[in-house]
Design brief:
The chain contains three helices and five strands, in the order αααβββββ. It is α+β, with helices and mostly antiparallel strands and about 140 residues long. The protein has a five-stranded antiparallel sheet.
């Protein structure tokens, strides 16, 4: 996003400024600052998007549920969440129950749901049953 903005800024400085009417420079600068803010905002939105493989797993993964058998906090992160290892008993309709472990970044709002004995919704990759997504 920043590189694209710098290209537009260079184009503006090199060509547009010389060919615009007198007295419009302040308006052009306001428009450039607004465009920079828009580019930064769009970049932040795109940075928070899930990865392509996670979006594909959410759409095409097998639905199931998991019973939490163990909760092992690993470490606190700098954004008020906690990396936690979860021992799960995974149930996918049409297949046998199996056990798995996942490391999940637990947000404060999700802490009451992440307790031993709780059942949570999951998605499992049909090609790789070890790839699991929690659906909270």
């Amino acid at each position: 996003m920043t590189v694209g903005y710098l290209i537009v800024l260079g184009f503006w400085l090199g060509w547009v400024v010389k060919h615009t009417p007198q007295g419009t420079l302040p308006y052009q600068m306001v428009a450039l600052v607004g465009m920079f803010g828009s580019c930064v905002g769009l970049g932040m939105v795109l940075a928070q998007r899930p990865s392509r493989s996670d979006r594909r797993l959410a759409r095409h993964g097998l639905e199931g549920w998991a019973v939490i058998e163990g909760v092992h906090p690993l470490e606190r992160t700098d954004h008020f969440t906690e990396l936690t290892e979860l021992d799960l008993e995974l149930n996918i309709p049409g297949s046998e129950t199996y056990r798995g472990t996942i490391v999940f970044d637990v947000a404060p709002i999700d802490r009451p749901r992440i307790t031993v004995g709780e059942t949570i919704s999951i998605r499992v990759d049909p090609a790789d049953r070890d790839r699991i997504m929690l659906c909270l």
